[in-house]
Amino acid sequence: MDEPKYTISNAAKLMGISVHTLRMYEREGLIIPFKKSSNQRLYSDRDLERVKCIRKTINDDKINIEGIRRVLALIPCWAIVKCSAEDRSHCEFFSGYTKPCWMINHKKNVCKDRECRTCEVYQSFGSCSSIKDKMKELLP
Amino acid sequence: MDEPKYTISNAAKLMGISVHTLRMYEREGLIIPFKKSSNQRLYSDRDLERVKCIRKTINDDKINIEGIRRVLALIPCWAIVKCSAEDRSHCEFFSGYTKPCWMINHKKNVCKDRECRTCEVYQSFGSCSSIKDKMKELLP
DNA sequence: GAAAGTTGATATCATTTAGTATCAACTTTG
DNA sequence: CAAAGTTGATACTAAATGATATCAACTTTC
Questions:
Q1: Distance (Å) from CA A91 to C1' C25?
Q2: Same domain, A30 and A92
Q3: DSSP secondary structure string, A80-133?
Q4: CB A122 within 8 A of CB A30
Q5: D chain positions with any atom within 7 Å of a protein CB
Q6: Which of B35, B37, B42 is nearest to B5 (CA)?
Q7: Is the domain of B138 the same as that of B81?
């Protein structure tokens, strides 16, 4: 499931989209593929699941990319990774609301040792209702 | 601030937009103006503040209307109005994720006596970072 | 009671946006 | 080492989206 096994052209073929589209989703911060040391992208089955979710949100639900990014920026990562008050006060994400946390430089907090690609926060958007489900889980 | 005092044409003039645009925002579920018994709309200063926020989100942040609605659908109303497990299990909003709670029929729960227009949930979107601020308030 | 304004609807328009095609330089693969 | 594939960039296109204009029926206002 998490094994990075598809090259970008294979992934694109499997999803029925162009290679460029996959790179665009990445540039827009919607997906983080695995990268080999040579910078070549590789996609796992979970990645493809995520792409499917992105496509559904764009094509069926008619939400544009900026909109998706804004939704992702609402994921309460601070409550998920349980970062300290100290961390929060230095975190650009905690105060901002336009970009998801993984698009932001976070070297000096609890996230510095985490890989965003495998982080629970990033993966909250694996399937399409999952962000709200995550919130239900976190809130009383 | 909350007094409904502007007719739709006055409100439109104050915001520099057309009357139709205000009605569109309403149809799309982004705003709930006061309505006289004759069905005529009236806008308060707080309403205009909200319209300003909507316009900024559409024109500057480039998020489309569906996107805004999806963001609004993430407001964790259940934690704000503290509705019961019973209420939640019957609430179409609690399980859905495409429409804000005030676009949904809620006659048989704690919201039946509330007016959405003045509800804290609806007003979480008064200014533009306020939804995330609300979440910080609710989460540990 | 007449003029001005409002409502909801439809048709239309200008702009934006997601996505494709094409390109040269670089990397992988067999 | 040569063919196939990848990377990042730019130019372009078809479709969708926010917004305006126009309409007849109805209300408000003076």
A1: 38
A2: no
A3: HTT--HHHHHH-HHHH--SS-GGGS---SSGGGGS-GGG-HHHHTTSSTTHHHH
A4: no
A5: 5-10, 16-22, 27-28
A6: B42
A7: yes
Could you tell me if A118 lies within 8 Å of chain B, comparing CB atoms? no
Q: In chain A, pLDDT over 70 holds for what percent of residues?
A: 100
Q: Is the CB of B27 under 7 A from strand D?
A: no
Amino acid at B1: M
**Does the pLDDT value for residue B52 go beyond 90?**
yes
Q: How many domains does chain B have?
A: 2
Q: Do residues B44 and B80 share a domain?
A: no
Rounded average pLDDT over B22-48: 94
Helices (H) and strands (E) in chain B, counts: 9, 2
Q: Is B132 on the interface with A (CB under 8 A)?
A: yes
Q: Which residues of A touch B121 (CB under 8 A)?
A: none
B26 — pLDDT class (breaks 50, 70, 90): very high
Q: Are residues A34 and A76 in the same domain?
A: no
Residue B105: domain span: 66-140
Top mean-pLDDT range of A12-16, A126-130, B126-130: A12-16
Q: B89 and B42 in one domain? A: no
* A140 interfacial to chain B (CB closer than 8 Å): yes
Say if residue A57 is in the same domain as residue A103: no
Does one domain contain both B72 and B138? yes
